[in-house]
Design brief:
3 helices, two-stranded antiparallel ribbon
Length: 132
């Protein structure tokens, strides 16, 4: 294989590798246990809500791999790839955790601020001798 063909093949490989989206494997949102609930209750809610969210976006279990924090091999869930799938997963997960009584802090949109004018507004000085 010539050097030119190898360079073209390597460039094509690197160009397509940058387009790959990672699959959804878990929530990106923060969930906290409610006051008065044990850590075991929170873990049970978390596991249930992860399953509900993965089912909602059409994810499946990957045999032979384990999710981070689980002791069972074969329990990892992998969902479709892309930012839309991650947003849907996070939305369903957060709703499920709130419904279970846990806390999901939200970061709202920043308050709207009018843009600053690049110049001062004109000043009205009244009629001049040219307008009489």
């Amino acid at each position: 294989m010539s050097k030119l063909a190898a360079a073209v093949a390597l460039t094509a490989l690197l160009a397509t590798a940058g387009c790959v989206e990672p699959p959804v494997t878990g929530p990106v949102v923060l969930a906290l246990p409610a006051s008065g609930r044990t850590y075991e209750q929170f873990r049970a809610d978390d596991a249930h809500c992860r399953t509900v969210a993965m089912t909602a976006i059409g994810g499946t279990a990957s045999p032979g791999t384990a999710s981070p924090g689980t002791a069972n091999p074969g329990t990892a869930k992998r969902g479709p790839a892309g930012p839309a799938a991650q947003r849907n997963y996070d939305s369903v997960y957060a709703q499920c955790m709130v419904a279970a009584g846990d806390a999901v802090p939200s970061v709202g949109a920043p308050p709207f601020a009018y843009p600053a004018y690049p110049y001062a507004p004109p000043v009205y000085e009244g009629p001049t001798e040219f307008t009489r």
